[in-house]
Design brief:
heterodimer; A: about 110 residues; mainly beta; six-stranded mixed sheet; 11 strands; about 55% strand; B: about 120 residues; four-stranded antiparallel sheet; about 50% strand
Chain lengths: ~110, ~120
């Protein structure tokens, strides 16, 4: 059983569309992180959310941490081809080590 | 300021062989973690090294071992390779062992693509 469930697994959209990626768990996390990974590269940290209910914005990307600190979402407005990549959520459950979800592969078509 | 570097970039081995992968952490970082990322999957934690000792370990067999040197660089060794060991092996460095502070940031290297035939 995956500790962090991401959905959808694959997403293919047209440039200009909006999208939301979800990261869910039955466990409480002290923080959750979102990464983007491009082919042939390691994951790059986008944001860390720490407080339940927290919302962070990074240009066209909006990240939200659930009130109970068990889930998070990533919303992209007006997606661009440069947003294409594998989006990963990751967190450290209490007393454990960094755990990744399986990722959402996003393709934005021009 | 160099980021995390890994070598080699690609590696092809046959079943039963042994492999050593290398990682140099970001300048100023003293903690190195290793991850295995199978195709289409998220990274899976292998182990973490701090002060030249293995501090945490994921669910990987003893065939996977590591080492950290006084200069904080690290090696990942895999013995008796299996076809299922084919994956991207990622190294990540941080200022301190993860879990100590909830906002710790890891910086990942580009990975080593291992193919076992």
């Amino acid at each position: 059983t995956q500790l962090l469930e991401q959905s959808p697994q694959f997403l293919s959209i047209q440039e200009g569309e909006n999208l939301t990626v979800y990261c869910n768990s039955s466990s409480v996390f002290s923080s959750l992180q979102w990464y983007r990974q491009e082919p042939g590269e390691g994951p790059v940290l986008l944001v860390t959310v720490v407080t339940g209910g927290e919302v962070k914005k990074l240009k066209r990307l909006t990240f939200q941490f659930g009130d109970a600190r068990k889930d998070s979402s990533l919303h992209i407005t007006a997606a661009q081809p440069g947003d294409t990549g594998l989006y990963l959520c990751a967190g450290v459950p209490s007393g454990s080590r960094l755990t990744f979800g399986e990722g959402t592969q996003l393709t934005v078509n021009p | 300021d160099a980021g995390v570097t890994q070598s080699p970039t690609h590696l092809i081995k046959t079943r039963g062989q042994q492999v050593t992968l290398r990682c140099s952490p970001k300048s100023g970082h003293d903690t190195v973690s290793w991850y295995q990322q199978a195709l289409g999957q998220g990274p899976q934690f292998i182990f973490q090294y701090y002060e030249e000792e293995e501090r945490q370990r994921g669910n990987f067999p003893d065939r996977f071992s590591g080492h950290q040197f006084p200069n904080y660089s690290s090696e990942l060794n895999v013995n008796a390779l299996l076809l299922g060991d084919s994956a991207l092996y990622l190294c990540a460095s941080s200022l301190r062992p993860l879990g100590k502070t909830s906002t710790d940031t890891q910086y990942f290297g580009p990975g080593t693509r291992l193919t076992v035939l």
